Amino acid sequence: MRSAALCLLAIAAPACNWVFGIEETLLAPPSDGPPGDGPLPTARLTWMVAVTDVAGVPASVAELRAISPPPSVKIGRIAGELTDATIDDTGEFQIPYDYETTAWRLVYQLANDVPREVHWTPVSNRVPHATVPLYGRVDRAPIPGPNTTMSLNAPGSPANHSGPRVFTTGVWTESQPVFPVPPGSTFTYNLNQSIQLSGPPGAPERTKGDLVVLVDYLTSSGCRRSVGSAAFQLDLADGPSTTINAETWSNTGIAVTAVNPVFADTLRAALTAGSTDTTSVTTVVQFGPSPSSTMPGFTQRVSFLGLRAPLILPMLQCTGSDLSGLPSYNLPDSLSVFPQRAHIQLTADRTVSGGPTLTSGLAVVEPFTGATVMFDFDVAYPSPPFLLGTLDLSTADHVMLTDGTDPLVLSFTNESMKMPADYYEVVLHRVTGVSIAVERVYTLVGPSLTIERSVLAPNSEYVFEIRAYLGAPDASLADFRSHLSTQSSAVVWTHTFRVP
Question: How many domains are there within the chain?
Answer without folding.
Answer: 2
